[in-house]
Structure formats: structure tokens, C-alpha cells
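Same chain as my last thread, 188 residues:
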Amino acid sequence: MPLNVPDPPPGVPDQVMSKLHAFADGAKFTTPALRGARKDHLGLSTPHQVFTMGLDDIASGGGLGRAQPVGWRFLIQDGGRTIAGAETTLAADGTHEVSQLNEGPFVAATDDAMTAIHNLPQLEAAGFELRLLRIPALYMMAMWLHAPATDLLVPLAPSPIAKEGKPIPPAEFFADLSELARQTTPPA
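reply #2:
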């Protein structure tokens, strides 16, 4: 089975592209790659739902069941080359709003991780759905490969636990993070 890249909610990709075009038309991009991109060459790829976990979830031994969906993320491409990321946030009324465009280190790390993920032998057997797990308090992001029977996490560089680009089971991932979370959490 190939990697399942889920379909975002209807209209969300169009909304993101409209925002990209509006920024390009108004010369509002502040990051180098987007500022230098040609509007007619911009495209979106690799949609994946974004989940987040808090520091308390990690410190208390919580697992992936504590991850909360918060929006969608797309890779922005210029002529087929990944140059940035775009994210939406779920608004109170259930609609999606474009919340950020960025060229930070996690964009290149995602592109690198996708190459590694497509070469995983486990991919054929499990039919994973692509997701992103973010733990802001620990500056941690990982591609989350979810299947009904199993999950794998691929930490993105820079990672506080290292293991960037390597698929690891949730138990190992959270064991590595739990001590870091306890050290970061102030005593009650």
C-alpha cells in the first residue's frame, strides 16, 4: 500500500492558494524563497493534518491518544521544489484559516523525511496515513505515520531527542520525550 496522503477539507487548498496569490500580488512575502518565487509557479503538495500535544500530556505519560487535531499543513512548491510550508488553523466556527507561511528548518526537514518515509519497508504492509505531530513546548515536530494497527513517528530536525528522519515506535518516542518534559515542567 502506498502512503495515504489524506484529502484536506473541501476548499482548504483553494483558500491557501488564494492567500499565497494575494501575498504575491501585494509583495507581502517577508521570507526569501517566497519573495523570490513566481506566483504562477507556486503549488501545494503533501497535505497532512496537524496534531498537537502539550507538555503536561508528555510529562504525565500520555500517548498519541492525547494528540488534538488543530489544522492542516501543506508544503509550498516553486516549480516542483519545496520552498516553504503553509498551515491552517481550525477556527471556532469549524472553518479553516490560513495561520502561517514559513520557511523554517522544519520545512526542509519535512521534505527530507518524506523521501525517507517513501523508502520505508513498513509502508507497504501498513498503509500509513500521513500526519504531523507538534509539541511546541519542546520544539518538537515529527511526521506521524498512522495506521489502525500501528503508528510510527519520524522526528524532524532539529529534534531535542535526535533520531531525525528515523521511524520510531510511539513507546520509544514518548520515553525519550518524557524525561525532557519532566525537566521542563516546573514543580507544582
